## 1
Amino acid sequence: MLKVTLKKIASTLGVSTATVSKALKDYPDISEKTKRKVKSLAVSLNYKPNSFAQSLRNQESKTIGLIIPEIVHHFFSNIINGVINAATRKGYFVIVLQSDESYESEKKQIQLLIEKNIDGILLSLSDKTVDYKHIKQIINQDVPIVLYDKISKSINCSKVIIDDKKAAFNATEYLIKTGCKKIAHIRGPLKPQTTIDRFIGYKKALEEHNIPFDKTLVYIGENLSYEDGYNLMDQIIDDHPDIDGVFASTDLVATGVLTRLKEKNIDIPEKVSIIGFSNWFLSKITSPTLSTIDQPGYEMGMKAFNLLHKEINQIKQGMPVNHEVMEISTKVIPRNSTKSI
Amino acid sequence: MLKVTLKKIASTLGVSTATVSKALKDYPDISEKTKRKVKSLAVSLNYKPNSFAQSLRNQESKTIGLIIPEIVHHFFSNIINGVINAATRKGYFVIVLQSDESYESEKKQIQLLIEKNIDGILLSLSDKTVDYKHIKQIINQDVPIVLYDKISKSINCSKVIIDDKKAAFNATEYLIKTGCKKIAHIRGPLKPQTTIDRFIGYKKALEEHNIPFDKTLVYIGENLSYEDGYNLMDQIIDDHPDIDGVFASTDLVATGVLTRLKEKNIDIPEKVSIIGFSNWFLSKITSPTLSTIDQPGYEMGMKAFNLLHKEINQIKQGMPVNHEVMEISTKVIPRNSTKSI
DNA sequence: TTGAAAGCGCTAACAG
DNA sequence: CTGTTAGCGCTTTCAA
């Protein structure tokens, strides 16, 4: 099957390519008759505009780049889903790239996307990203960018985030309201903002409810893995046999905690209550089911794309871009690993 | 920051764009001196070739399309991961699209990708896809396509698949070898090839081990969901109180089965053994842990991309393309929901 | 060793 | 209402 171009249509119809181009786009200055002729021939020849030529002319590709720290991850795959759905709806394609939580590859991916003349970038900072030169540089080049989930306050651009402090506050408060008095917290590594914020939220909830903060109740799960939860639970019980609640930074950790408690025949939630974070798929199928915080990845992906889209249009129309920080609200999902209020 | 083009470099250096272009690509017919001059200016000006122009000239975008039935799914996100990694390594981008298991959107996505002049397509058929005109059409247009996972034998193109029959055979045989004599099978809906093949494998294993096939032992889980497994287990026990093994079509179903059995205080694996399919993440954290079949999505994604890449190159070089069907091997992952051999 | 020129396919300002 | 023309930025042939 040979290529059908404007030129071919023009020549077989004995008109100019300009006429054909305009006719197909319903320009008002083309007669109905010509439009009909052109369109019907275009259809019968199965004409498809060459997107490269269009991009070259219009300097836009209708494609954005999405950089994900880790694709195989329930929360992030929900984000991918949200982004792609929002983008598809607006006629955009999404190129997905993985930074693997590495600073180096994050830099490289951004570089690649810029070279590709992408219309905009959606990025979640890798845990290991320490400086932001690479990002500031692309902002200077007027490439629209929106940060989602893992962000940095020192970057001046639009962002979509979860209020981790508030979410952690709510999780902890929920435990308190169901009667817990001595609540351990398994947090992630020291650096990432999300772990810090969740820790702060935990602390604040205790304070507001007049429970003295005890730093020996805070444990670090380096990988926030199932094993971390499983192993730390032993230590927690050793250190504090009278513990009655655990707020874990992720559902995975919480599941490890839960498994270990069951093995030790400690009743959940009667003796120890557990609340996780993320509302992963698996929290619905543990036994008992896991109370958690819903972290709406799909919505976040949608919002992030829509924000980016707005900026792309603003820049295209030469309007001033006003950056926006959008906060997605989270909520406690009560299940059976906590007592009822 | 203004755009740096070949023209700009050429004019500031007082040479032609042709020379600049060639110098940057190390053409042998350019003097070392000019090359040095050109290259150093290009670097200091931070020159990036315009990818639209390159694509237009070369008729290739170094971008492929990946159509996934469902992004938020452990197996498929592994596939995405594999594809993206393999593609990145070869300098390709991956546009990800979701068909949502709908025939209509599958058709539309393919259409969009073709219009985008993508270099090739990776596709897993949606469950609802009934005819293959849309796919045969793109094959006729010489757009390289590789089918992965859910395929159809009546489409003539390269494919990457798992031998579901063999895998299901192995799963069932494993149950038999660990002493099971009366094995139920929870299969998926009637149409998709994968469910059919898994059913066939199940049946064959029984036959080869002289266990008469009993069709009342085959149950259908319409959605292959946790709930399906949970609910069907009641029925299975009612119908066949002496059941001693269950081969579930997915780990999710198996987890439902497992939970229900535990609730009924039926010992796993002593009284009833369970084997799932896919080696989802969750199979490692149920209690008891779930024996299953490893379905290597990552590897599948890699292989699928590499196959596509080969075809892209063959077509580019005008070579004849020989389609290839690649079978990824699976294996039984023994865990604690089955007895030891 | 270098450059002029054509052209990939499309769009849009302008002229007729 | 239609066509001419120029050009987006790059590559490559051919001539100098």
## 2
Amino acid sequence: MTGRPREFDTDTVLETAMDLFWEQGYGATGIAELSDRCQIGRQSMYNAFGDKKALFVQALDRYSCERLGMLIELLEAPGSPLGNVRALLDAWEANWSDPEFRGCLMVNSMAELGVRDAKIKARLDRMLQKMEDAIYTALRRAQEQGELSADRDPRALARTITITGQGLAVVGKVASSPTYARDVLATTRRLLE
Amino acid sequence: MTGRPREFDTDTVLETAMDLFWEQGYGATGIAELSDRCQIGRQSMYNAFGDKKALFVQALDRYSCERLGMLIELLEAPGSPLGNVRALLDAWEANWSDPEFRGCLMVNSMAELGVRDAKIKARLDRMLQKMEDAIYTALRRAQEQGELSADRDPRALARTITITGQGLAVVGKVASSPTYARDVLATTRRLLE
DNA sequence: CTCATACTTGACAGCTCGTTCAACAACGTG
DNA sequence: CACGTTGTTGAACGAGCTGTCAAGTATGAG
């Protein structure tokens, strides 16, 4: 029944794999590199996670849980819903200004695999909707509490904020101007007034 | 002096190569595939364009000239500058709704190569600035002609519109909702009122 | 015609990739 | 201790990749 116990922690390995895919993308990350950095043999990798694409999907799911989890937690914090949305924009701005800013695994994956792999495409679409819905819900609550004018379209606003976040994540990989995110997010904040 | 003449048109080949990189990305596009679709031998490819990365850079430059050229042309059209900006947003919306929408080579390249290749990164940064500047100039002219309120920050607005375009280009590769671009661009248009 | 030049063609070297195979090691159970 | 089960280790496979070499071919110049 019970065989030889694992010598590695599945979560730690998945976290490292996620980081690698995050930094380099799916195609540019090789199995050798993965097993090197994760400090486990190739075969152990295949035993535990399946083939490369299966591993990637699990890493992507982990990213989704972590990041979207943080986002939802932030937006559902007690107090002012609109303040929470503003806090999200602040967090993006701070993150963007980090010199080690490395983009977003979700967006990178959309660009690299969005049209090529239908299964991953559907997954990414779902993640996008989760993000949008979390922002939408916060905006709706802001309207209910009178923080946000009732004549605003919260769905359109949530989508705009989502797009802005994704756009900043890609552009941040090449833009040299340090005030880019500040300018863009200042405009976004004006939409919430 | 003059040797055997070329049997192919350099522009046509470059256009085809650009399309391939556009659809599949840099890493996922092989030399064999390129020479197949371009209908020329590998060696002819290497003779005419250099190695793979050099070919890609030329394809990227071509994309930049074509697309940014169209964008600038649209924004500098005679008549209302603000109307031209609105026309740009309309064009994006129409483009996005196309079922064969395939994103944008610029954004795809940012995601795939933005942090890995410094030379390409600088090139993409320059393209981004060109795009931003074209929109900025149109907005400035709109202000001079009194179409756009003078208290708006045209730089921030131009960057916001740029980010929105890039964001839509990535998200469009996976988003299933057909009203996404409409919602986002409606919000963007409100910024111009 | 001869020759240097430039392009084309096909084969192939060298490498890396994802994946698998076979042998060995560590565990619980009888 | 023997056995089934599971994980590890290291080697190897076949396919695909980028880039190059060598031979053949079409041109203009002398």
## 3
Amino acid sequence: MSPRTNPRAANTPRKRVAAIRRTLRNRTLQKNASIFAALGDPTRLRLVAALCTGSALSIAQLTSGTDITRQAVTKHLRVLADAGLVHGVKLGRERRWELEPSRIDDARRSLDAIAQQWDQALTKLKAFVER
Amino acid sequence: MSPRTNPRAANTPRKRVAAIRRTLRNRTLQKNASIFAALGDPTRLRLVAALCTGSALSIAQLTSGTDITRQAVTKHLRVLADAGLVHGVKLGRERRWELEPSRIDDARRSLDAIAQQWDQALTKLKAFVER
DNA sequence: ACCGCACGCAACCTGCTAGTTGCATTTATT
DNA sequence: AATAAATGCAACTAGCAGGTTGCGTGCGGT
């Protein structure tokens, strides 16, 4: 048997196996993954933190205090923008970048969902054990 | 002047520039970045979701329903474990993996901090504008 | 004792990602 | 008009991350 077609393992009920498979195939998470991926780089996370301090900042400002090039910062901003976490507006000869707080909330909701689902499963399990 | 030593841009007060630089150099975020990076892959996010459904699952179970190899799943679990999001216990000839919900909370707190900081900055700005 | 299942380890391939350098373009400033 | 500032664009490099294949190992059931 091919190693990837592993129908059932141990003694897990078929229904649960089906549920797990459904979860594993779920496509809803694909979108949220991009947000986490965007936040998953230390440099980018620092950029986000810097933008949290309030006003919209230019690339030059965001580059100052970093040990990478301005172009590298530009690329990171591009990634963050693609994830919808940030957007920039042209202002004269510079471009100011600011946060998109709604996306942060999206990510937070996603984590909330995970945590909640886990808690729920835990209480169910507890109920089952204590029955 | 080198393009990376860009001391001040536009007409931003020096104090704020210093604050931004401090934020950009902050190392506290480094750790959280690894959590987000771990969650930043669709496959891994699905694994987490599958583990949310309750019981601890074996690698074979987690592989079933995916179109990747068992070894790929193993690697992803390794990444998740390195981020502290998951841990496995040997159980006979198989190894069951389960969530570490405290780390999820860590990530959530991190996002909360960002959102809160942003809100705070917003209200400050609003207060300034409406003065 | 034997066979099969679940897993670990190591080597390898491949594409993307972070980062750089060099140059062009637009906008202020004097 | 000329210069400097802030940014954009393109090509290039190096390294890592996701994925596979192949094989070895330990545990379980019969």
## 4
Amino acid sequence: MHLDLDAFYASVEQRDKPSLRGKPVIVGGTGGRGVVATCSYEARAFGVRSAMSTREARARCPHAAFLGGRFHAYGEASRIVMGILRDVSPLVEPLSLDEAFVDLAAGGLTDFSTTALTAFAEGLRARVAEATGGLTASIGIGTSKFMAKVASDLQKPDGLVIVEPGREQQLLRPMAAKVIPGVGPATVERLRRMGVQTVADLESRTLEELTLELGQSHGQSLWRLARALDDRPVIAEREAKSVSVEGTYEEDLTDRKLMEAVLTRQAGQVADRLQKHGLSGRTISIKVRLYDFTTVSRSSTLPSPTDSAAMIARLARGLLADVDPTGGVRLLGVGVSGLADWVQDDLFGAVAEAEPEAELPDVPSRMRAQWWPGQDVVHTDRGRGWVWGAGKGVVTVRFETAETGPGPVRSYRADDPDLVPWKPEPPEVS
DNA sequence: TCTGGGGTCCTAGGACCC
DNA sequence: TCTGGGGTCCTAGGACCC
């Protein structure tokens, strides 16, 4: 079963503010560069859609209520609904605040006749409405995740569709290929060039044709889904793989110092969230969207995971040095991936995430390292060090350990073949 | 003043290792 | 003159989803 709450954020707003009922409500970014997250059906009548720029939504529906969103309220409503679903079956896979798959066979349900499923689903929709103060949900039920999801979309809002076993292909064949999850604008265009518009067209193509055009993974997935072949299980608990914070600014940023300040603040927010969930990660990334909407990312992987705001900020600022922000930057972001569900002992705050001490005492006079001008941390094959100073072709590195604090200081020739310059270009050391 | 923010998954190339 | 075949890890970018 797939359950989808209708126009979720907008519906919560209309529930909580009676004056908004029956009126167009648009929730999303309200600034000059905002987009629509969700809108009520009254707003959809004016052509407003999710992901549309708020600017355009205002032009189409100037009298709508434009709201920034109260995510606490949405989270609360979501928790209530997910709780009801978990009453039905232990196998509930939330996809977002307003959507979930439920494995009905893993729950108590034994009668899968259409009559019994209809009664069950209508009862569930009534329970959701009652427990949430009137929110409506659309439900789809089928023999796979794919079919359930397709079904829940067919009679939105406030609908219920059950696709009986054996009828999958006849339902899918006339539909546009983009009903298949994973087929977005780019794939639609490639398929169109192949002469594929509908699921039936897709089904007529061989596995070889599709994998050649779309790649192994995507091609095979489409070949299977076009035949309604889908055995993906409902997975109740999925672990997070990354944590990130990003922001688009009303006006493009042009000052590097300001960008560094933004990254530093975002690193703090990322670290807070990591710490709240007991997570830490090895790979620190930044995302930079330039004035022309081109997006670049840079990342760097540490020898061991961190959840330290200072460490993440230091790395993020260092990564920015490798990006040319000429023309202005509209978005900046910081992320941490390669998550581990444990945190290293943090004896010295920001600088305590040293290598295991056993690797440090014997600091070699030569080592492989990554360093570039402006970077104040060096990762080596023997451990981590802080750049103490750099000049006259020499890099001085101070090593620290959690046990002893500041450790030995060593100098390395910057042109030493074993002190490998980090990309992209050999650094000019002045 | 076109085009959010939080994610996931995939691909491709290079370094490196045996 | 000719230079394998697996595998892993890392980085960058892109497509996609809600």
